[in-house]
Amino acid sequence: METNTEILFTFLDGHATRLSEKEELLYLEGLYETAKAWAEGKIEPETGEATKEEIRKALQLAVLKGMRASAQPHHQMTPDSIGLLAGYFTDRLSKGRPYVTLFDPAAGTGNLLFTVMNFMDGRTAASAVEIDDLLIRIAAVTADLLAQPVSLYHQDALRPLMVDPVDFIISDLPVGYYPDDVNAADYKLKADEGHSYAHHLFIEQSMRHLKKGGHGLFIVPANLFDSQFATQLHTFLKDEAEILAVLALPSGLFKTQAHAKSILILKKPDLEQGPKPEVLLANAPDMKNAKALESFFAKVDAWAEENGYRTN
């Protein structure tokens, strides 16, 4: 028997394929038009009431198919296992607050952001930025289908943002060099010569848009602190942030070790000058390994309790 996610994917894929062939569109463009028609009630899948996660996962499968077809290097999606970890940490660090604000400065189709919002369903509102026109249109229609409150902005996130400070910034950071040296000159993490690292500039921009005491959760290259500008980054973080955690992600999630990533969790200092929390250093386990996951979450919960992140 097919699951709701499978039924929804078949529905999306069939309509998107037919539309893209008929109108000579990219598959992702056909998917956007299909999802838009669904959100507007012009077409409906033949399934019972689906959960937000079932809808998100079906859209994710269709987007992944479209990204493989387009072969665009910037068209990539954060794996679900990472999104669920991000949701767990955001929930834990929020200390059980009934409402928090989120921001993703490099949202893509919004899959990471929506995974976290679904995890904390009803307790969040978000804003997001994406420079790619097609990806942000897919993110917008996904927000409609999931009934998640998100304000979306189509722009270069490293330029001035019309976004209020938020409680949490969650982002799978674009990795590589930022080509606009003139704009990069406004950042402390700019390179002295040549292009600057985009992912470093995104971290600095994110810290600007966090509330005092707010948290940033970033998916970063595993070699972030061993790279060309690591000393500069260390100095910036020492002055502008507290490092709460560095979590190595399972190697099986990535094609090669060169593409390996980690989760970096930062806190923007607040007015209360208490003791700095102990940095959590851990290897995130394979999500299929129940015993390892139980041990990992027990370690995280103990760290959270010791460092003031109680949920009551």
UniProtKB/TrEMBL annotation:
YtxK-like N-terminal helical domain boundaries: 49-67
Protein keywords: Methyltransferase, Transferase
GO function term, MF aspect, one: site-specific DNA-methyltransferase (adenine-specific) activity
Catalytic activity, EC: 2.1.1.72
GO biological process: methylation
Record-linked InterPro entries: DNA_methylase_A-5 (IPR003356), DNA_Protect_Modify (IPR052933), S-AdoMet-dep_Ade-MeTrfase_prd (IPR016843), SAM-dependent_MTases_sf (IPR029063), YtxK-like_N (IPR048375)
Gene3D superfamilies noted in UniProt: Vaccinia Virus protein VP39
Keyword Transferase on entry: yes
All copies of domain DNA methylase adenine-specific, residue ranges: 100-289
Superkingdom to which the source organism belongs: Bacteria
Name of the protein in question: Site-specific DNA-methyltransferase (Adenine-specific)
Organism whose genome encodes this protein: Bhargavaea ullalensis
